[in-house]
Amino acid sequence: MKLFRLTALILLLAAAWPPAAGARSLAVFPLLDITKDANGVNMPLTGYLRRQAGELGETLISAKAIMAFMVRHRIRTLGRLDSQAIAEARQELGADLVLLGTVCQLARARAQAPAAAVSLSLQLIRTSDGRTIWTTTKALSLADLQSLLALAEPKTLPGLLKVYFPALLASFPAKINTTSPAGRRLSLASIVLRPEYVRPGQPLACRVIISATSRIEPGSEASIRVGGRLYPATLNKEEYGVTATWPAQEKAGTYQVTLVIKQPAGRRETAILGRYHVDSSPPALVLQAVGKKLDGLVTFSRSLALITTMPDPEPIARWAITVFNKNHETIVYQEAAGQVPERINWNGYTSSSLPAPDGDYLVRITAWDRAGLTASAEQQVSLRRTPPKISLKVEKKDRQLRLALADSTATPLSFWWLRVYQDGGRIIKAADGDRFPADVTVDLPKKRAGGSRFELMLVAGDVLGNRTRRQVPDLLALTAKARVQQKQHETERQWLENF
After folding, report:
1. Which of 3, 49, 181, 442 lies deepest, with the highest CB count within 10 Å?
2. How far apart are the first and last CA of the chain?
3. 212: how many CB neighbours lie within 10 A of its CB?
């Protein structure tokens, strides 16, 4: 009797207080990480997202069950699910909602690198009808928080994530009707909807095979419904196939595509085919060459560091680097798929693996987003490989040698040093400096029996790292008097040979 009363009380309380609106089953699928590659996965951030979604009151489907579902259905492409997979997630996982996402930017704070930053794009899908009911994209870096958090600001990427994820899900809908509008749905055997990302007005096309279990009566008509508009479709009743083409909307956004079959009796049957995204804004790209500025241009000798940033991060389909010489001829062109690297190095060589000559060059980075919209950024740079060209004049007066040093190149000098050795051994003069021209006086020791030789070792480097090394075995042979005597000797010898 007591057990009966307790059961009745529980049923009465359940009727008086229905389940909370937020108690919905949510499947958080692994995040696509395009900062790694075109189909990279980021499990740590997926874990962050799961924990934050759980704090919103959602009933989370276990990560193990979701991974088993993906393996079972051979889902290898992250960040999106077709309508069939969404319906199967509802049936097999019991998911009312599916949360998909893409990691667009992820950077850790490093020395001599931009501040830590993160950017994610999320979409929430209702499995009952495959409809996208919420989307958000948010980017945040440590630099954004400097004026907001003052001394309490995070210093690392993990600290930034603790601030980021609550803000990312701040607009997550509190009330969602998890059931689809009433109506009969078609069963589809295959769906092809292309492209997924388009520009305004760009044509789209779909081809659908309807399952034989869905009876299509003679005289039925097919159409495609997008954004409240109907577009005509061709229905092939023999193979239950539907084909259609239509222009993309002019307004940017995500659009759901629904197949509508109107039976002769007036009954309408529908099926969600998928979604596509209209993108009207090209990506933003900023390029900065890192190096020493000479004559107003970033100048390098061996390797040029190019830092690229995207103020509004978004997935990129492909990118290219082009280098033009002063005649606007292309000497370097390289293209790759995926996101633009944050750092690109040019070694000063052409695409033919030949060293580019000294001079000014235009470096251009071009990026194409998934809709084919392009952005480019460029910067003029200068290449100088020529090391210091040192001229040396030697004059002898009494017991002294005067060395006059000069450099004919335009690149500023960083350092120079010299050593003068007597008979290849003892150092009789050492000098150094950081600019030319320079005069160095060498006091000669007393003559030895049989005379002495004075050897010079000279090294100089410019601010770009180019270096020159010069060795003179006999300085006395470079004096003006010695050169005249040598010239007379050569003339006399030539005269004797001719005679």
Report:
1. 49
2. 144
3. 11
